Fold this sequence. Notes:
The structure holds 2 protein chains of 2 kinds. The relative contact order of chain A is 0.25. Chain A is mainly alpha-helical. Chain A is 69% helix and 4% strand.
Amino acid sequence: MSGPADEFRSVSHVEHLGDGLLAMAAGVLAAMAGLGGAILLVPALLLTGMTATSAAPLGLVTVAGVSVAAGRRQLTSRVVNHRIGVTIELVASAAAVVGALVSGLLGETFVAWMLAVVALAAAVIGARGRGLRNPPDPACEPSDVGERIGALDGAYPLGDQVVPYRPKRVAPALGFMALAGFIAGSAGVSGGFVKTSAATEIMRVPMKVATATTTFTVGVTASVALIVYAIQGRIEPRSCAAVLVGSLLGGQIGAHIQHHLSPVAIRYLRSGLLVLVAVLLVTR
Amino acid sequence: MSATESADRPDRQPIPAGAVSSIRGRRQVPALQWVVRVLLVLAALGAALPGTAGSAFGAAAVAVLIATPLTRVAWLTFRWTQESDRRFVLTGLGLLTVVGIGAVLSALGVGR
């Protein structure tokens, strides 16, 4: 799985610990806000002096780790819509393959600016909404909770109440999912921040469903990208292991906190994080 | 903010029609719980042990990590088959096919 040893930086246990702690922090925030995690971890690792080539696989390990770790809690909360997830992931993964194929043609500065602009746009769009956009329906019963066979519709529990939802404008939203996939393939992040924004702002999927479903889908994106990196010999197993421990712990903590947050708080948290990421990317 | 707080732009959706899917995570939840435990052990050993042993445990952790989301998609596709949900069976199969194509293109060195 690993390439020649001299391709990788020589790391001590202290550096492993530092990478693991950064991954845990990224995992907590990613699971809470419906971001992949790489968009938070990779800029942080770059600030520590790591090269982009080394940081990208670690970012994707964090994404996959958070997805697996948060999955149990989010499934128990009945907020994941697998049919929406697989639908958007089909488009995103196809675009990710294209992005990976052309990534060599794109300069690092262009990719950084592309990420920053998209992150800032997602932050602004997400912060515009106020209040609870998808209110509970008193007519709904607990037995209504779940996905609908043959459709993207569903209902999720919010406290003691049930919120029904029906995704709108699916076709244009899938265009943005393709953009998310292209970003994932070309920049080595999961594109989760674009997916969540498109799901909430275009498809009008409730925030909690969008964040949990995105957390599920970015795990698939990260797996695909990690397969590519493994084939290319860009995986350093011991560094990945340290980051994985952090992201698994962080993902579980983040999913637990997210369960207790209101949809409005999640929306503002996500927007704040995206502004921070955009600033980091541009100023780096 | 509570769930019942007034909304600036309430967007109440109709109660969805159609049958509720029986996929409620009854198998996925315990499976994911075990995967997380296995991953934690493998990754901790990979980070702590020096040399080849650490690399072997780290590589095993990454392999399990890569396989988990894809196995989840395959499992969902199988469950949708049981629910006779052809549209989403095709979507799931399409996704797995795209993943396979990406891996093959990468192995062939395309785009490197």
